[in-house]
Amino acid sequence: MKTITALVVALLALSQFAEAQGGKSQALKWVFTLVTGAGAAKAFGNADQAHAVFQQKDAIAARLKNQGVDPINGAVFSLYFTLNGDVSSVYWADIINKPDIYALVQIEGDGDYLVPAIQYEYAGQPIIENLFHRIVPAGRRILVHIMDDDSFSNTVWNNILQTSVSYNVTADVSCKPFLKAKVEAGGKVRLLDRNMELDAADYIATAEFTAPNTQEDRWVANGVLRDSSNREVGKLQFGQVWRSHPEVLSRATEEADTAHSDFVFWCVLGGVGIVIFGKLIFSRTQNAKSRNA
Length: 293
Hints:
With 293 residues, the protein is α+β, with helices and mostly antiparallel strands.
């Protein structure tokens, strides 16, 4: 109940940005298409990266474990979006300067998260972020809010960017974990795992969709970003490119344990052999000395 309440509070906080624009927020309408399995690979905006991750899916769990990450119930997600280049079609907080945009993600039953990346002086180019998080259960609502940073200083963002952790999932693809956050009533974003807070940002647009009910490793949701006036101001794609499988992790653990046991066995056996061989050589040497005496 607390999580749902927090989600409602966050959405109410974000709606204040719409009211500040001089009009009452309308009920937004999102139409997203969901593609799973092999079809998702073609649907990804960053198809090359998604394909590379999928091709090495069995090795990713081991890679993550080697970097100190528990891959159980984990997944790698891809966030890809772009805003219309036509400034007149998007509400920019800064009239003179281009916006400094970042994304907030809200997962029903899980909480609020900050994507640890910001695009300064955004000019309409596509943005791609690979992220690591727990598997999102089927049926959970996911909201992605695009915000325009309105901080007077870059101190907090510099700290976020300098301390963000990055995990290698393939030789060429890396991902970052979400940062646990809480959107407060005044619009400020408090980072729960750090003693930091982002100033209230200016709201740009939101996309909403639901995690699909599928056993496939890959799924992708394609749709549009809409502002508080229900105008389409960009495109967004959010998808799962890899997920952990308990049976694969269990088998890998068993194989590792077996390999370790075999290694210990042969080390012990080799040690015993060396001791016996040494004693045999020593005995022969002593016998030879006795005969010579």
